[in-house]
Amino acid sequence: MRYVFNFPDIGEGLEEGIILEWYVTKGQEIKKGQSLVKMETDKVVADIPSPKTGTIVTRFGNEGDTIHVGTPLVEIEIEGVFGEDAIAEVKATAKMEPLEEGSTGVVGTIEVAGNNAFLPASEEGFSIPKEAVAKVLATPVARAFAKEQGIDINRVSGTGPGGRVTKTDIQNFYLNNPADRPAVHLQITSGEALTFEPLSQIRKTIARNMINSKLNAAHMTVFEEVEVSDLIWIKEKYQKIYAEKNVKLTYLSFILKATVNALKQHRQLNSQLDMENNRMIYKNFYNIGIAVDTDEGLVVPVIKNADKLSIFQIAQKITELSEKARERKLTLEEMKDGTFTLTNYGSIGGIYGVTIINYPQAGILGIGKILKTPVVKNDQIVIGKVLPLSLTVDHRIVDGGEAARFVIQIMEYLSDPFSLMME
To answer: In this structure, is the dihedral angle defined by the CA atoms of residues 2, 7, 9 and 11, taken in order, positive or negative?
Structure first.
């Protein structure tokens, strides 16, 4: 019996992934749970395990190809399952099948069946029940090409193995059915004037999330400045001690601690709006996202239960997650369930920024570059060290007064950092 394994939704509503590396070849025997392929999604890089034991008959797609969720990854020959047993297994596995946790990179429950999931070793006298067929079989390249050309792939007759639609089938359909071509208006430009590069999975997600946030939240931004000479003194005093323990102490560690303490006193900032059920959701845990700038784009790992961590432990987590983010080793678990976000654009020279909320969270704190600025102390003008802050909130959830009180609370902690160590 032949079994077609489709690219599963490995979490967070992912729609597609890029093949980075194949671990198996045609004719290779594999075990259930064995890694088949390394896929890059818009959030993580993950190994996809085999749901069955058998022999690889076909691989769909080459390294670098984009594969959509629900389209075939591999075809597996499974011995000892025929006729009615195969039909029964179609129905049984066309739902969901749990995979055991292990070193495969993907754990939990994933979709392992779907479009014509099982094919008999010999197709003579055998047919798949209609209820097991969700949509036409096609190669990933053909699906991408059909989408690019605006063609409904379900209208194309396949000439590939098992009736699969190939790129050639799409090309022939396009040439023979001019009425089905979408109207396209192109402006031809010199090839040297423009450079085209495909969007990365991360960039697609950033674009989608930013638009989603702007469309669904009422953004309001408050700007403030806090004098942090004492904070600088404490950081410089302890950073060498932390470095000896392979931990980098940054201002972000103190700011995160101050933010968590302030969130405990201003629960609106640690909530979200549930319009469908006409209610507010107040979160009694504090999972703080930290925006990390990587070569691939901005990612936001989450420090879980930050209220239970010391400044040293927070610094450890920031160091660990930042390194994993830049090496593309973050897991989905490390990027979910955030309740509030910090973005430190000051680390690369920014002063102020109108930041975009990590929807559906209620707010995001932007951290600017510390500047030497004249300040008044004891009625005297002296050189101060000023940290700019930008707090953006969802104005549907947080009123202006509450936003001001929240950021002032953070400023009080940062201007008197000893209070952070006392709590």
So the answer is: positive
Which single residue is written with the structure tokens 């450079």?
195
For 66-111, the pLDDT digits (tens) are 888 889 999 999 876 554 454 455 444 444 333 333 333 333 333 3
> What is the spatial distance between Cα 256 and Cα 364, in angstroms, rounded to a whole number?
12
Place of tokens 């997600």: 205
Lookup: tokens for 94: 């066309």
215: which DSSP letter?
A: H
Question: Residue 112, Cβ neighbours under 10 Å: how many?
Answer: 21
Q: Has 219 been annotated as catalytic?
A: no
What residue has token string 């201003």? 266
Provide the 10 A C-beta neighbour count for residue 171. Answer: 14
**Cβ count within 10 A of residue 333:** 12
Catalytic residue (one of 68, 219, 266, 395):
395
Residue 134, number of CB atoms within 10 A of its CB: 14
The two structure tokens encoding residue 140: 């990933």
Instruction: Provide the H-helix boundaries in 266-371.
Output: 311-326
Closest CA to 283 of 311, 302, 310, 255: 302
Strands 288-290 and 302-303: antiparallel
* 208: CB partners within 8 A, 6+ apart: none
**Spatial CB neighbours of 185, under 8 Å, sequence gap ≥ 6:** none
Give residue-wise pLDDT tens across range 379-420: 899 999 999 999 999 999 999 999 999 999 999 999 999 888
Segment (H or E) for 380: strand 380-394
Residue 396 gets which letter from DSSP?
A: T
Tell me whether strands 340-343 and 363-367 are parallel, antiparallel or unpaired. Answer: parallel
